[in-house]
Amino acid sequence: xxxxxxxxxxxxxxxxxxxxxxxxxxxxxxxxxxxxxxxxxxxxxxxxxxxxxxxxxxxxxxxxxxxxxxxxxxxxxxxxxxxxxxxxxxxxxxxxxxxxxxxxxxxxxxxxxxxxxxxxxxxxxxx
Length: 127
Hints:
This protein is an alpha+beta fold and 127 residues long. The chain has a single domain (2-113), classed as Ribosomal protein S6/Translation elongation factor EF1B (Alpha-Beta Plaits), CATH 3.30.70.60. The protein has helices at residues 16-32, 69-81, 93-113, and strands spanning 2-10, 36-52, 55-67, 85-92.
């Protein structure tokens, strides 16, 4: 199983109970197909960087999940056909973690090779 972050933007004019229903529906898609949700963060209404159709604001939701590819494909399919979803983005977090661990390992290796020179004692000048 791999770790993913899925962020989607809902239409801002949806009633709150409707947006909660859509979020719950997407949560059930993940859990029913074998994935596990780590975190569901409802970020609320925010301004979009650019207009999407007639919308300048959107209701942001972030899922942090662990799942197989089939689960993710089903979730993306549902997000794609949902009329209330303006945009969605899926990011695989595993690659980022691997890259950071590799960088930290390289830094530690470099630090262990590079030993600081001992400071030289100042020579006593003849008086």
